[in-house]
Amino acid sequence: MTDARGSTSPNGGAYPPGTPCWVSLMVHGMAATQEFYGALFGWEFQPGPQQLGPYVRALLDGREVAGIGQLPPDRHLPIAWTPYFASDDVDLTAATVRHCGGTVGVGPLDAGEAGRLAIGSDPTGAVFGIWQALELLGTDITGVPGTPAWDELLTYDTESVAKFYEVAFGYEERPVASPDPDTDHVTLHIKGRPVAGIHGVGAALPRHRGPHWLTYFEATDTDEAAQRVLALGGHVLTPPHDTPQGRVATVADPEGAVFALVHMER
Questions:
Q1: DSSP per-residue codes, the chain
Q2: Closest-CA residue to 219 (of 239, 248, 193)
Q3: 0.85 exceeded by the pTM?
Q4: Which of 109, 123, 201, 226 has the most C-beta neighbours closer than 10 Å?
Q5: Minimal CA–CA distance to 44: which of 25, 57, 31, 28?
Q6: Cα–Cα nearest to 30, from 4, 48, 6
Q7: CB 92 within 8 A of CB 100
């Protein structure tokens, strides 16, 4: 993880293209998942677009934070949080993803009046979404507990995939300063602002997961939140520890969706 992204869309406007603007989770047990995240983050829920099946939007203080949808019973896909990157033209971005060696597995398709979306993967297999906003600009609140703070791609090495994201989404790549010369870590910038990261971890990448995006959520107290995850039936994969960006823990919900908790001193 590097510097967390700032406020959501500037002055309430649309997210600049390439910026992580939404995060969504597809699960088998909608009711149990809502109960877990409601208890963990204080989220409330309201119905969202149903184009891909049952779907709800998570709200914090009445403002959209994230989405949770239901997988068909016969679909045994990995349960994972998926970041969506903003686009002015999802069809063009999807075509660029294909041209750069990625794949598009869903869409582009309309999500009712909310916007238009596609779901793709980079050349290493890491899954992400593309979002062209209409009524739903994206996550409407950040910087407070229970909201997305950062998205980081965990992959084998940055060199093999960073160029894909630069071309597909217009990122500027900058190395992360580290006292360890072997650290393989870059940030992706839009208009000079860090919006996401890529971390090459080599053999430390879990074989059963492969390259994947990890979403960080703000927590008031990382240690307390990690304990609450356990009490709610989730798992702590990496115990809370201090980093230059704050205190971080990696956890999983009861269905196995992995995410990180972070408390950053401001």
A1: --SPP-SSSGGG-PPPTTSEEEEEEEES-HHHHHHHHHHHH--EEEE---TTSSEEEEEETTEEEEEEEE--TT------EEEEEE-S-HHHHHHHHHHTT-EEEEEEEEETTTEEEEEEE-TT--EEEEEEESS--S----SSTTSEEEEEEEES-STTTHHHHHHHH-PEEEEPP-SSTT-EEEEEEETTEEEEEEEE-GGGS-TTT-SEEEEEEE-S-HHHHHHHHHHTT-EEEEEEEEETTEEEEEEE-TT--EEEEEE---
A2: 248
A3: yes
A4: 226
A5: 57
A6: 48
A7: no
The tens-digit pLDDT sequence of the chain (266 residues) is 654 444 345 445 689 999 999 999 999 999 999 999 999 999 999 998 887 789 999 999 999 999 999 998 877 778 999 999 999 999 999 999 999 999 999 999 999 899 999 999 999 999 999 999 999 999 999 999 999 999 999 999 999 899 999 999 999 999 887 767 778 999 999 999 999 999 999 988 988 889 999 999 999 999 999 999 999 999 999 999 998 889 999 999 999 999 999 998 76
Look up residue 186 and give its two tokens.
């870059």
Residue 103, token pair as written in the block:
């794949």
Q: How far apart are the first and last CA of the chain?
A: 16
Contacts of 265 (CB under 8 A, 6+ apart): 246
Which residues contact residue 218 at a Cβ distance below 8 angstroms, ignoring those fewer than 6 apart?
A: 142, 143, 144, 145, 146, 147, 148, 149, 262, 263, 264
CA distance 96 to 254: 36
